[in-house]
Amino acid sequence: MSQSVDRALTLVELLAEGPRTLDQLAEAVDVHKSTVLRLLRTLEAHRFVQREGTRQYRLGTALFDLAHRSLEDRDVRRAVEPALRELNEETGHTVHLASYEDGEVVYIDKFDSKHQVRMYSRIGKRAPLHCTAVAKVLVAALSPAERDGLVAHMEFPALTANTITSPEAYRAELAAVAERGWALDDREHEDFIHCVAAPIRDARGDVVAAVSVSVPVVLTGKDGLLALVPRLRATAALASAACGWIERKK
Amino acid sequence: MSQSVDRALTLVELLAEGPRTLDQLAEAVDVHKSTVLRLLRTLEAHRFVQREGTRQYRLGTALFDLAHRSLEDRDVRRAVEPALRELNEETGHTVHLASYEDGEVVYIDKFDSKHQVRMYSRIGKRAPLHCTAVAKVLVAALSPAERDGLVAHMEFPALTANTITSPEAYRAELAAVAERGWALDDREHEDFIHCVAAPIRDARGDVVAAVSVSVPVVLTGKDGLLALVPRLRATAALASAACGWIERKK
DNA sequence: ATGTTCGTTGCACCATACGCAACGAGGTGA
DNA sequence: TCACCTCGTTGCGTATGGTGCAACGAACAT
Q1: In a mutagenesis test of the A interface, which of B64, B74, B101, B240 is the best target, namely the one with the most A β-carbons within 10 Å?
Q2: Which of A140, A229, B89, B239 has the most neighbouring CB atoms within 10 Å?
């Protein structure tokens, strides 16, 4: 561990709480102010901090650059893996991670159920848009224009008795999903399985993926499934945090 | 300048371009890999970088925290001042910065016209919602619910012959503003002045303020005013960048 | 004017960050 | 299976670079 780097980073963290003067910083990290000054100068040269007026330091603009640039090549799958694994281990049910790309919803990660009864799915598989919870979440998050274009060209084959089979009903469902922040697949895809899904957001608030829990009906009735929603949303929140999302108060 | 801090920050900047291995980093900054390892460990302890698998380093999540936290207490006015000042000096016209809070639009900064003909306004003054360009921009950016609530309780006194005097016309105007990304006040507030305004966004893309240019009609006709729009939008983009906004490609 | 509170500079010392070289783990090819 | 190669990791001795000190200077207040 490098002492000076450690101190410099501590300074940055302190400044995250608001602007500080040199003396305040020196006292907070318990280092001589001349030392703090040198560290700040180095940080300033890299635009990690900037001076405000003559006696105030604050965080610099490099942090925005860095945060955003790292987001771009950040692999969502890897970032959210721990959160999803935990959900899978805690509930024992199948957990899916899906993302939307070019008019399709694709499963990009999967954690198998620990129960005997499993469902078939695999990474890379395309999810039907009209009867899966993840697709509902992802489509509901699209821009109105893109969403309308997509829905206009969709087909609605009835896979079970509960499948949504009309664009109108689907649009209404999407609106409901967007409103409440999670989606339900109530045996709309397969007779013996139902799911709930929630969105994962990045630093900008854009929905970058959806996480779902799939449960065989024989194991858990609808009430039991809905009881999982808070746990699911907690996972989605954790996963979003790993992608840079910070919930904005008020 | 502190050598180790300097090197550590350089490492962070390198990692912003994508994940790297220890050797790559050592070579890039031209220091021994054992040294780089120690720096990375320190950075890792502060969550500035994180390991991906066993032989990949990438930026850590602390950067998101920091970037967002610094945004919150960041003073928009101070951040965008240089951009607005430049617009004012270049065009010579009055430039306003306004923000929305609790149902009101307030001028929070102002750069006076250099021409003889000035307009009256002051920092802290409330802008009429129905007939100013800044208000149109800010109200158009509200959530549908908040916007509807606001418009429902608005009054539409006719201040000039051009003032919008009905909720319906105002709603249509807001939609047009949202669509094209800037707003016009075509002598709707005062007979002898017209304005254009554009939104300023933060890192999350939320509209945090609006910048406007106000021009006396005697100086510049409507064509001349509209010719200022590209310049205005450039300023808004610059100001947004200072608030952390990064335009997303595609 | 006088005092106070900051940021800033030069300097001498020694802690600390450094490079080196050797080790170990994990992967690859024959 | 073994040998080889490529990385990350560790311990160590050294001198470089970071540190605290004390004095200076600027800005502001009394």
Answers
A1: B64
A2: B239
Where in chain A do CATH 3.30.450.40 domains reside?
74-242
A3-69, CATH topology level: Arc Repressor Mutant, subunit A (1.10.10)
- pLDDT at residue B250 is higher than 50: no
Q: With an 8 Å Cβ cutoff, are A6 and B46 in contact?
A: yes
CATH 1.10.10.10 in chain B, residue ranges: 3-69
Can you tell me which residue has its alpha carbon closest to the C1' of nucleotide D10?
A: B34
CB B90 within 8 A of CB B64: no
Taking only the tens place, the pLDDT of each residue in A95-109 is 999 988 778 888 888
Claim: this prediction has a pTM higher than 0.80: no
Statement: the CB of A1 is under 7 Å from strand C:
yes
Classify domain B74-242 at the CATH topology level: Beta-Lactamase (3.30.450)
Return the residue matching tokens 């509902």: A136
Does the distance separating the beta carbons of B204 and A52 come in below 8 Å?
Answer: no
Residue B153 burial by CB count (10 A; 0-12/13-18/19+): exposed, middle or buried?
Answer: exposed
pLDDT of A26-55, one tens digit each? 888 888 888 998 899 899 888 888 887 667
